[in-house]
Amino acid sequence: MNETLRLSSLAEVSVGQAVNLELAMRVDQRLGGHIVQGHVDGVGTVSGVLADGFARVVTVQPPASLLRYMALKGSVTVNGVSLTVAGIDERSFTVSLIPETLERTNLAALEPGAVVNLEVDVLARYVERLMRGGDDR
User: In the chain, where are the structural domains located?
Assistant: First the structure.
């Protein structure tokens, strides 16, 4: 879809490069994490990667239009992986990657300067829309 190519980093993916794919959850299954729709709302840039014991802390600078949907301990999707916001400031947010995430996704390869796809929490979008009285402009 042209919108996906315009809003995401997928236009830059080369043959053989790892991407994260996950099957959709069935309606009759237990929800074991965040609600992720698989949309890309925009891209952010990795500004820092730090070792933190067995984990890795990644700092991402999203567009201001997306940062407003971030909340400490809220959810964010980075390159299709649902994560918890571990920290937030006026320009960026951080996530902490556990060994399981580092082993099973392409997030282990993130370095400063990398462009990542972001999906913000859909519940935050609905709350914002309701607070505006349903105006989507």
Answer: 40-137
